[in-house]
Amino acid sequence: MERGSLGRWLLIAAGIFLFLRFGTDLLSGDHKPARKLPADPVAAPAPAQTRAPEQLCDLWGDRFHAQLTTRGASLKRFKLTTAKYRKDGKPIDISTTPDQEEFQQLRFQFSNRLEGDADRQLDTDLIDWSLDKTDGKSCEFSYKSDKVELTKVVKLTSRPYELDVSTTITNRASRPLKHAVTVQTDAWRYEREVESTFLTKSPLITHVECVATDGKVTRLTPAEFEPQDFEDTAVFPRNSRNPGTWYETPGQPAVAAVSNAYFTHSLVPLKAPGGPAVCQTRIEHRFARNVSKVQDDPNGGALYRARLAYPQMQLEPGQSATYALTTFSGPKERSLLAEAAGGTHSVDQLIDLGMFAFIAKILVAFLLKVHGLIGNWGVAIMLLTITARTLLFPLTLPSIKGMIKMRELKPEIDALNEKFKDDAQAKGLAQMELWRKHNVNPLKGCLPQLASMPVWFALYATLQSAVELYNIPFLWFPDLSAADHLYILPFIIGGTSFLQQKLMPPQGDPAQQKMMLYFMPAMFTVFMFSLPAGLGVYMFTNGVLGILQQQGVEWHARRSLKDGKGAIKVEVVSDTSKDKQKLTPKGKVEDRPQLGNGKA
């Protein structure tokens, strides 16, 4: 392998490393309890002695158990009840702020962007509701004062992981009053939970997102928000797009969510009296004021927030307004998201398939179809890999043929390297003449391979985001979405890669051959220590198929040479010696007259 060829392989290896390191975000639903967070300065709680005792309402829906509290009539707990979504024998609770009233999901606020107090419908948004009805299928809350009457109904739908929510506000005052509704979903993450190592990304990385009615998705991470100090004990964010405020996504929203690759808390607007809502997102970096950055605080982290914000409304005395929405909170199973909120609100766009989503969707459909036929996710991944490798074989064939030709020319290339070791220009001219005569182009085999890379990246993104693999056992793996806990698979994949490199036609000098023989297998072994086992099944299957395809082409090439086809005879002219040299496939050198300095 020449220097240029080695450089290409190293570039490809670097690209693979960077993609595996930074290409996708993974999260799981195994949460730790959140620490006490500083209060939001826009909504100060009422004095503790004036508050009524907390009451809870339980809803047992299809595959989940939700618990709501009279503190804000908001969601306190949300547990997944199927056996698939259990950790250590306990249901996964995907709520992350259970004891933080102002940051609980499904919380309604009524004073967004209202200036002054004289015309406000409510004096504070942190209120104690009364629990009027609970029957396991719905929770009805109410609140009443001299100025306002509120009713809120949260009920089950016929679909998994869904709740319908409606809130009605009535003006009980004798004058017109204003309100501006927002409904939010928040999630807390410690910085230590989302930190990445040199080789892996944390499985708890979170983002906020808005899906517009036209299907366009806006996903934001903490890097999109810069910290800014407030007088409060917290450090709140400054939005890099609109400093000091929530970032408002243009267009009418279909979904607002705080999501990860496997789970989501999403809000779907249904009904509003004053016009459509807008989707607003914000990530608040929080850490102690005696440190300079969040990484220096062991309890530092970020609050991920998404909300629907409705236009300001004024109610006449006795007038009412009702706001309705659906929330989907749970695993991002493709079939469930496609039907969520009636299947007409693009909730399935919450699945991030990367920049090659159009290819990934085809792969996902095929994977789901195969699994539906055989009922085994591990075997389905193997069949998907076999199918993709077979369809892409015409693109890999030129590369394999190119390597075979380069092996046939190796004696001549070695002779050139030795003869012109002190004259790089002459050696380059001779090699190019050698390649031209025998129609060998080192780049010719690489370009088709690069054309197939989007398919492999799409397949990688598909398997990385497949919650269908979550907690699914296969062979000795207890969970296809987690790394091999026995560390067997990384060494199997490393061994497969080593065998594939060993069987490849030897190219380049001995040092380069050893580097490729040991570097590539070692790289894949290290990668697999932290990658999901489902990806390992794909990589192992792909490696075995690569070996079989390569050996098949090699066998065909040997048959052709045995029949007398493909014999190589090469003439190369030196621009530094006094003799023209004829190189035979066996590497013998014959003297011939010189054609001229620098000419071949």
Roughly what percent helix?
A: 25-40%
In the predicted model, the low-confidence regions spanning at least 5 consecutive residues are 1-8, 20-48, 228-243, 566-600
- Give the overall pLDDT as a whole number: 76
Our Rg estimate from Cα atoms comes to 32 Å
N-end to C-end Cα span: 23 Å
How much strand? Answer: 25-35%
What about the largest sheet? 9 strands, antiparallel
Count of DSSP strands: 26
Q: In order across it, which strands form the biggest sheet?
A: 7-8-9-10-23-19-18-13-14
- Which structural class fits the helix and strand makeup? alpha+beta
SS element count, helices: 12
Shape: elongated
Tell me about this structure.
- The structure is a single chain.
- This protein is an alpha+beta fold.
- It is 32% helix and 26% strand.
- Helix 4 (357-374) crosses helix 9 (442-464).
- The longest helix is centred in the C-terminal third of the chain and has 30 residues, at 533-562.
Secondary structure elements and their pairing?
Elements: H1 3-22, E1 56-61, E2 64-69, E3 74-80, E4 86-87, E5 90-91, E6 107-109, E7 130-134, E8 138-144, E9 148-156, E10 162-171, E11 177-179, E12 182-190, H2 191-194, E13 207-212, E14 217-220, E15 225-229, E16 235-239, E17 247-249, E18 253-259, E19 263-271, E20 278-286, E21 301-309, E22 313-315, E23 320-331, H3 334-339, H4 357-374, H5 377-391, H6 393-408, H7 410-419, H8 424-437, H9 442-464, H10 488-503, H11 510-528, H12 533-562, E24 570-572, E25 579-583, E26 589-593
Antiparallel strand pairs: 1-2, 2-3, 4-5, 6-12, 7-8, 8-9, 9-10, 10-23, 11-22, 12-21, 13-14, 13-18, 15-16, 17-20, 18-19, 19-23, 20-21, 24-25, 25-26
Helix pairs in contact: 1-11, 4-5, 4-9, 5-12, 6-9, 6-12, 10-11, 10-12
